[in-house]
Amino acid sequence: MNTMIQAKKSNRIRSSLQDKIFDASNVVIMILLLFVYIWPLWFVIIASFSDPMEVQLGKVLFWPIKPSVDSYIELIHRDSIWIGYKNTIVYTVLGTLINMFFTICAAYPLSRKDFVIRGPVMVFLLITMYFNGGLIPTYMLVKALGLVDTIWCVILGGALSVYNMLIMRSYFMNSIPPALQEAAVLDGANSFQYLIRVVLPLSKPVMAVIALYYAIGHWNDYFTALVYFQDESKYPLQLVLKEIHQSVTAQSIDMSNNLDMEEKVKLAQSLKYSSIIVATVPVMILYPFIQRYFVKGVMIGSVKG
Questions:
Q1: How many beta carbons lie within 10 A of that of residue 75, not counting itself?
Q2: Is the separation of the CB atoms in 86 and 144 below 8 Å?
Q3: What pLDDT digit, counting tens, does each position of 127-136 carry?
Q4: Cα 161 to Cα 138: distance, rounded to the nearest angstrom
Q5: What's the rounded Cα separation, in Å, for the pair 268 and 291?
Q6: Which of 68-72, 162-166, 194-198, 221-225 has the least mean pLDDT?
Q7: Rounded Cα–Cα distance for residues 39 and 33 (Å)
Q8: Residue 211: CB partners within 8 Å, gap ≥ 6?
Q9: 235, 83 Cβ separation under 8 angstroms
Q10: Where are the alpha helices (DSSP H) in 112-134?
């Protein structure tokens, strides 16, 4: 009897020691990964405030050297920045709403087993994930529809992402218990009411994630505007920053004025980092409000028994 008790105590001590080693290893690995992911962003921040020559010489590592806000002042004083911000916010908000509408409208019926043509529709949508018409045919189509140089060419062109739709469809199929639909039918709810009152309230986590994917895609998109926009007043922020950087760089290599050429070179170098911060900060501010949905157990307590 005593031998058994001693064996159990020995096993518990050994298990406790292994757990401590495992936890300590996890902490060390997480700290290293945190440094790997955080340091590049931190470097961009401190480089945007540091003297560009110090950055080029590799002296800027953890703290700014010879801090300056000249590049931020240069960006703020340009009216095109604020126009770009306004355009990007409009494109992002309106585009994300349209994306979510079409994604839900496609994902919900395809998640229902009683949707008769679910198989053919899925095949049709999956084909579009691997094949497209190409840039020139797509441009000709957009031009024929009269959407060139309008906000709709950057919104309707990617109104539905099949990949995101598949994620939402899988969530509807695997995380929404069929018992909820049966209960809703017994209460007299039709499919539309079931979707609005039951499915969507229980799908906030996946909707938040998909909305974030769409929003970041719209916020970072510049190629679509580069192809279809001719009016500079409709340029999104990313394209405005690109134009500013190119103009400052062109001025910095203009040899007609050697007196301030060095300052323009420094400004062009600083703008590379400050423009990243200007374009990234709004998304970083938005993320904490979405983060809680990534880990929220929304289905807890929805079905009992």
A1: 20
A2: no
A3: 888 887 788 8
A4: 16
A5: 35
A6: 68-72
A7: 10
A8: 96, 99, 100, 290
A9: yes
A10: 118-130
DSSP state of 203: G
| 168 three-class SS | helix
d(CA 221, CA 179): 41
In angstroms, rounded to a whole number, what is the distance separating the alpha carbons of residues 144 and 116? Answer: 34
Amino acid (one-letter) located at 182: E
Tell me the average pLDDT of the chain: 78
Amino acid code (one letter) for 298 = V
CB neighbour class for 274 (10 Å; exposed up to 12, middle 13-18, buried from 19): buried
Q: Span 133-151, mean pLDDT?
A: 86
Q: Look at the chain and count its residues.
A: 305
pTM of the model: 0.75
Both tokens of 56, joined, read: 């080029």
In angstroms, the CA 220 to CA 57 distance is: 30
DSSP 50: S
Amino acid identity, residue 63?
A: W
Among candidate residues 246, 93, 95, 77, the one with its CA nearest the CA of residue 161: 95
Q: What are phi and psi of 146, to 5 degrees?
A: 75, 30
